[in-house]
Amino acid sequence: MVTRALRAYDRVVSAGGVTGQRPGLPGRIGRLTPTGRPLVPVAWSLYDFANTIFSYAIVSVAIGLWLTDDARFGQGPGQLVQGIATSLSVGLNAIVSPVLGALSDRGGRRLPFLLFFTVLCIAPTVLIGFSPALVGVLLYVIANFAYQAALIYYDATLSTVSLPETRGRLSGIGVGVGYMGTIFVALTLLLLDARVEQMFVVAGVLFAVFASPIFLVVKETATSAPPLTGQVVLATLGQLRRTIEHARAVPGLGRFLLGRFFYSDAVNTLIVVMSVLAVRAMGMTEAEFLVLSLVLTLVAIATSFGWGWLADRIGPKKTLLAVLGSWTVGLVLGTVALGAPGTTVGVVTFVIAGTILGSGLGGVQVADRVLMVRLSPAAHLGEFFGIYGLVGKASQVIGSIVYGLIVFLLFDAIGNAAYQLAVLSLLVTMLIGMWLVWPVRDHWSGPGESGGSIVPSERLRPATSPIEPRPEGRGGQSP
Predict the structure, then answer these.
(1) Helix, strand, coil content of the chain in percent (nearest 5)
(2) How far, in Å, are 38, 70, 103, 158 from residue 99 at the CA level?
(3) Is the N end or the C end of the chain the one with fewer CB atoms within 10 Å?
(4) What is the 3-state secondary structure (H, E, C) of 259-327?
(5) pLDDT per residue over 160-206, tens digit each?
(6) Do 89 and 144 meet the contact criterion of CB atoms below 8 Å apart?
C-alpha cells in the first residue's frame, strides 16, 4: 500500500502537481532526473542511506567488538583477525574492481549486478553474530567484499538517474543522505539496546529495507555493447599501468597520491578500530560508544562545510595540511588517553581527541578530493580518480594488518600500551603523508580546473566511465 501511494504521488508531481501552483521541493527534485519523476532520485539516494548503515554498524562498530570478545578471539588475536579479514575483503575487491567496472559498462545494465552484490552482502551479515568464530570471519569477508563491489554498480547508476548538469548536485544529496543513515542506525541500536550479536541482524534488515526502493523505482534501458571477453578484461587490467604512467607525468600528482596512501592509512584504520579502542581499551560501554560516535558524526557533518569554505579560501593543499595537522593533535591526545583507561581524565581526553578527529574526517574527504581535481588534467580525470580510489583501498589493506599485528604481538605483554603503540604507528604514517604533500603546488591551473569537470566522490564511477563536463561550464576556479 505504501509503495502504491508513493507511486501515485510520484505520478501527480511528475504531471505538474496542482494546477496554478508553483512546483515545490518534490518538483525541483524531479528536475534532477531525465524522467522528471521525483521518486527516482529519492530511491537512488536511499541506497546511500542503506549502505552507510552497513559501513557504520558492521565495519565501524560490530565486527571489531564481536571478534575481540573473550568468547571468540580476545583482544590481541581479535584485532589481528579483524585486520586480516578487512584487508582480505578490500584487497580482493581492489584486484577485481577493473573487471567489475568493465562489466558495469557492458550493455548499460547495472541494477542486476547491484542487486546480486547487495543480497550477497546482506545474507551473510545477518548470520555473523550467531555463527562460530571462524565461520563469522568468513561471512564478514564475503559481506564486506560484496559491499565494496556493490558500490561500483551503485555509483555507475548515477548516469541513469541524473542529467549531466545535475550530476554533482544529486551525488551531493546522496552523500548527505548517507550521513543520515549513520545517525539513523546509531539511534536505532541505542533505542533497541542491541547486543553486539543482534547488531548484525538489525543492520542487515535495515540495509534490505532501505536498499529496496532503487530496484522498485529506477528503470534502466539496455544498450547494445560487445560482449565481455578475455581480451577486454586484459585490456582493462592493462589500463592501470598506463594510468600510472600518465599520472607520473603530471606535476605533483604522483607525490600527492603517495602522500594520500600514508595519511589514508591512519584515517581508514582508525575508522575500523574506533569501537575497540573505546570499549575494550577505554572501558566505555557499547551504548556510550554509540552516543560518542553519533556526536562525532554530527561534528563531521557540521565541520565539512567549514573545511569546504576554507578550501575555496586558501586552497585545497593548505586546507588538507591543516586537517592533517589537527589529526596529528587528535592522535597524540588519543595516545595519552589510552594510558589512563577508566579514569575521568582519560575518558575526557579520549572524547576531546575523538572530537578533533571527527571534525577532520569530513575535511580530509573535502580537501584531498578538490586537490585531486586541481592537479588532474580533464582528459584523464576519470582514470586518475580510479588510482585515487585504489590508493585508499591499498592503504586500508596494509594499515589494518600492521595495526592488528602490533596489538596482537604486544597486548599479552604490555596490555593497553599495545593500543598506544598501534595508534602511534598511525601518527607516524600521518606525518609521512603530511611531509609528502607539503611541497605539492596546488596553484597550478591544469585543464581539470578550467574544464568544468564534475568532482566525483572517492568511489564514484568505475575508471572506465567518462566524467561528463557541465554544459554551463561551471567548474573550479583557479586561485
Answers:
(1) 75, 0, 25
(2) 33, 40, 6, 19
(3) N
(4) HHHHHHHHHHHHHHHHHHHHHHHCCCCHHHHHHHHHHHHHHHHHHHHHHHHHHHHHCHHHHHHHHHHHH
(5) 777 776 766 776 677 778 889 999 999 999 999 999 999 999 999 99
(6) yes
The residue ranges of DSSP E strands in 171-294, in sequence order, are: none
Q: How far apart are CA 118 and CA 26, in angstroms?
A: 28
Check residue 74 and report its DSSP letter. -
The grid coordinates listed for 167 are 550530476
* pTM for this prediction: 0.82
Note the pLDDT tens digit of each residue in 219-253: 877 655 556 566 666 666 666 677 777 777 787 88
39-219 maps to which CATH number?
A: 1.20.1250.20
What does the radius of gyration of the chain's CA atoms come to, in whole angstroms?
22
245-444 is classed in which CATH architecture? Up-down Bundle (1.20)
**d(Cα 398, Cα 83) in Å, to the nearest integer?**
9
Q: Where in the chain is the domain with CATH 1.20.1250.20?
A: 39-219, 245-444
